[in-house]
Design goal:
Elements lengths: L1 H18 L1 E9 L7 H6 L3 E9 L6 E12 L5 E3 L5 E6 L4 E2 L2 H6 L5 E3 L15 E10 L11 E7 L10 E7 L7 H6 L3 E7 L7 E13 L3 E5 L9 E3 L4 E3 L2 H6 L9 E4 L18 E12 L5 E4 L7 E6 L2 E3 L4 E3 L11 E3 L5 E5 L13 E10 L13 E8 L3 E4 L12 E11 L7 E2 L8 E5 L24 H12 L7 E3 H11 L6 H10 L8 E3 L14 H14 L4 H17 L8 H13 L9 H20 L6 H18 L30 H11 L3 H9 L2 E11 L7 E2 L3 H6 E7 L13 E2 L6 E7 L3 E8 L9 E4 L1 H10 L6 E6 L2
Helix pairs in contact: 6-7, 7-17, 10-12, 11-13, 12-13
């Protein structure tokens, strides 16, 4: 009785444990079936997956004996497993796929029941019929089932061959076609279907391929690599049609991934739009699809469809060519004048040409946006585009507009000048037409009544800009000094050089906005070629800086003149990183980086003598240089190498004397001899420099004054032109005081991938802010309007010239000025 109870307890425990585990078997058998059973089992067309799940936390694995079974559903033939040789371990919730060999082992000795006529157990070749193949698992070779039976049916047909071109593909293309062909396909612009004509039951698999050919002009082809045999595949079922949906068509082109395509007859770069989509140029095309069989071994086979029959033709014509141009920008057009003059009349007639196509595009299908802006004095026609509209009309249906001046009173005022422009916009949303210059016409200008103003009044500040080496400011300063001392007569100098000399001599840093400000205040100089050296120009009157701001800045500036341990440690850390990178730099940059590292290692011991502000700039450049080196450790493009050269030059500028300027890095305290102290006065020689330092080291104030020669405070002033005549610059106004933030950065430090890298900004909003800057480099400045969040165009500001001039003629305490213009 006790034995019986023990057996019952043991049996109930087994049942309990068994109930807590499950093994699920899933089997698939895909066509075409290979009648040689061993080959079919070894192919990737027969798959079986076993999944073990346990509810008992103490059971993580189970040993499974896997059995195979094949049944003929059209005869008595059955192939079973006598003794499995497939034993696998299953982990909890870890699906396990049977390998090719394991599927064979699961059939053990291939025991055959039923009609075995003509069947060799060692090489089973299945007769025609319908079959079901199954796999299941037991806990022993002859033990209990621990899984379901996972089965799948398949057919074996004698005449089921992969017949050459047994599929038919029909393709049509809807017009108009979006030249970004992937978008045209995705939107349903290309329709295609496939029909397989093999005998019934002869399903098989195939891979779809796509090809685009430009027939004229200049033929080229874009096609999926014909040797690409990766999925996805499609199943071909006899007698039924397959709609090639957009996703399948895109797959036939490898989803237009250039790595999957073969492009011949054209540079692939010429087929890319702004976001790297393939964009077809104008021409006549055909797009074709064809299929290739997948063999029982999973390889590409013969063509299932004729590659030249599944095609649809189409034309792309969306290049409208030339933008519209005014043919009658004004009435009473005076062709003898530099600028057109309109005699007051109503209406004023404006006419223009439609966009002209080179591929037969209809001249219709456009609307037009017409605009008029006022053209102020000393503005170019292009500058007027930044002015507000005085009149604008959109969606005009024709190429003529009549401005009724009685209806639109005061739009045009006598004696004033205006700039006009028109833009053509395609009305075809399915195939937007591309027009030169984004559809905009050339800007035209005219004057409405009054006395004619010559177009020669327009000027570009860029036309008056000189590079540093061409300014000769020191030479002109010597001549002016001799003239004032009655040692020589007055002389005339070229206007460009006079502007540079006059600005820098009066403490204004040299940049395009400073040139424009100077010419605006001195319009009498615009038309001359040379100016007397003794000429006294009109100079701007700067806004005052509040006393509290002055006091705060002076304290910060004074602190910035002294060394800072944290900046010193940061420099040493960056230098160690640079030395480590010397072993990783690509070959073309080795000499550049080795030379820079050797130079910086020479000043390693002296960096604790340099002021905080200057070392901060050095560290900013070092951080950008290291960033660029990380990006180019394996290979280096020409652009990357040029950027490294620029950054290395900036570092040398900040750490080496410049014989053309007064800039140098001054050590602190002075008793320490430093290789950074390399300034040489060209006129007096090294002895004069040493003597001047000796005289200034008697007090800390004198020492800081010496250091301050190379770290100068600058006022940054924002100005704009007045809206009403005489259009003089406004330097101090409520909107300027409260609406702008100033930004600056070293020109070679601006990282377009991360624009915030090393950017500097002021701590307050003001039209006048103050910054301390090392004078031996070029900075890029721009402003941000905090009301409309628009930034001005960034421009370089060269500090060298103004430092040279002001060190001679201006008091030491006078602050220098950088000016920036806003709209």
């Amino acid at each position: 009785m006790k034995k019986l109870l023990l057996l019952l307890l043991l049996f109930s425990k087994i049942i309990c444990v068994t109930a807590q585990i499950t093994v699920t078997v899933s089997t698939t058998a895909n066509p075409p079936a290979n009648r040689v059973l061993r080959d079919y089992l070894r192919s990737n067309r027969v798959t079986s997956t076993l999944t073990f799940r346990s509810l008992d936390p103490q059971i993580d694995t189970v040993k499974a004996y896997v059995f195979g079974r094949l049944e003929s559903l059209s005869s008595s033939l059955t192939i079973t497993t006598d003794a499995t040789k497939c034993i696998i371990d299953l982990g909890n919730n870890n699906p396990r796929n049977l390998s090719s060999d394991e599927k064979i082992l699961a059939f053990g000795n291939f025991t055959i029941d039923g009609d075995t006529t003509g069947i060799n157990p060692d090489n089973i070749v299945l007769p025609d019929g319908t079959y079901r193949i199954c796999f299941f698992a037991r806990d022993d070779n002859g033990g209990n089932d621990i899984s379901n039976i996972g089965c799948s049916a398949f057919f074996v047909i004698a005449n089921c061959t992969q017949s050459l071109n047994a599929a038919l593909i029909n393709t049509t293309v809807k017009s108009p076609v979006n030249p970004v062909i992937s978008q045209s396909i995705q939107s349903g612009g290309v329709t295609s279907n496939l029909r397989f004509i093999n005998p019934p039951g002869c399903s098989t698999q195939a891979k779809l391929f796509g090809k685009i050919e430009r027939l004229s002009p200049s033929p080229f082809t874009i096609e999926l690599n014909p040797d690409l045999q990766q999925p996805p595949f499609i199943t071909l079922n006899p007698g039924s049609a397959i709609e090639l949906i957009p996703a399948r068509q895109r797959e036939a082109f490898g989803n237009f991934d250039e790595a999957n395509l073969i492009i011949e007859g054209i540079d692939p770069a010429n087929l890319k739009d702004a976001i790297n989509n393939i964009k077809l140029p104008d021409g006549n095309y055909r797009i074709c699809y064809y299929a290739r069989y997948i063999t029982s071994q999973g390889q590409l086979g013969e063509t299932a469809s004729n590659p030249n029959l599944g095609c649809g033709t189409f034309t792309i014509c969306n290049q409208a060519g030339g933008a519209p141009q005014f043919t009658q920008p004004i009435n009473n057009f005076n062709i003898t004048s530099d600028i057109a003059l309109v005699r007051p009349a109503s209406p004023v007639i404006f006419t223009w040409t439609p966009p002209q196509s080179t591929c037969g595009l209809s001249p219709g299908g456009f609307t037009y946006d017409f605009e008029i802006r006022e053209l102020f004095n000393n503005q170019t026609v292009a500058d007027a585009l930044n002015n507000p509209f005085v009149f604008r009309k959109t969606a005009l249906p024709s190429t003529t507009f009549l401005l009724d001046t009685t209806l639109y009173k005061n739009v045009l005022q006598q004696g004033r000048r205006y700039a006009i422009r028109v833009r053509a916009i395609s009305t075809n949303t399915n195939q937007p037409v591309e027009i030169d210059n984004d559809g905009y016409s050339r800007i035209e200008a005219f004057q409405y009544g009054g006395n004619l103003i010559s177009v020669n009044d327009f000027y570009e500040p860029q036309d008056y800009y000189l590079r540093f080496g061409d300014r000769k400011s020191a030479y002109w300063d010597d001549l002016l000094t001799k003239y004032k001392a009655h040692q020589r007569g007055d002389t005339s100098i070229p206007l460009k050089e006079y502007i540079a000399f006059a600005l820098t001599q009066n403490g204004i840093a040299y940049n395009l906005d400073a040139i424009e400000l100077f010419l605006t205040l001195n319009p009498d100089l615009v038309q001359v070629k040379k100016v007397k050296l003794s000429h006294t120009p009109i100079l701007p009157v700067w806004p005052d800086v509040p006393l509290n701001d002055l006091s705060t800045f002076d304290k910060d500036y004074q602190a910035g003149l002294e060394p800072d341990k944290s900046e010193e440690n940061k420099f040493l850390k960056y230098l160690d990183t640079l030395n480590a990178y010397r072993q990783k730099v690509p070959g073309k940059a080795v000499a550049l980086i080795n030379d820079l590292a050797a130079h910086l290692n020479n000043i390693r011991t002296d960096i604790d003598s340099v002021d905080r502000t200057t070392v901060d700039y050095i560290n900013n450049v070092m951080a950008e240089l290291l960033y660029q080196l990380r990006q180019a450790q394996r290979s280096m493009t020409t652009n990357q190498y040029n950027q490294l050269q620029n950054l290395a030059a900036a570092l040398k500028d900040l750490t080496t004397a410049d014989p053309n300027s007064t800039s140098y890095l001054q050590f602190f305290p002075l008793q320490k001899q430093s290789s950074l102290t390399s300034h040489v006065d060209k006129t007096a020689g090294p002895a004069h420099f040493t003597s001047s330092i000796t005289n200034e080291v008697n007090s800390n104030d004198g020492l800081l004054a010496t250091i301050a020669k190379q770290l100068r405070p600058f006022n940054v002033v924002v100005y704009r032109n007045a809206k009403d005549p005489p259009y003089k610059p406004v330097l101090d106004a409520p909107d300027l005081t409260a609406a702008y933030r100033i930004f600056f950065t070293l020109t070679d430090l601006y990282n377009h991938k991360n624009p915030a890298v090393n950017a500097k900004s002021t701590t307050r909003l003001a039209s006048t802010v103050q910054v301390p800057l090392p004078s031996n480099t070029v900075f890029t400045f721009w402003t941000l309007n905090m009301l409309n969040h628009k930034t001005t165009k960034a421009q370089d500001v060269d500090l060298k010239n103004v430092m040279i001039q002001t060190s001679k003629v201006l008091p030491e305490a006078k602050k220098l000025t950088i000016v920036l213009k806003v709209d």
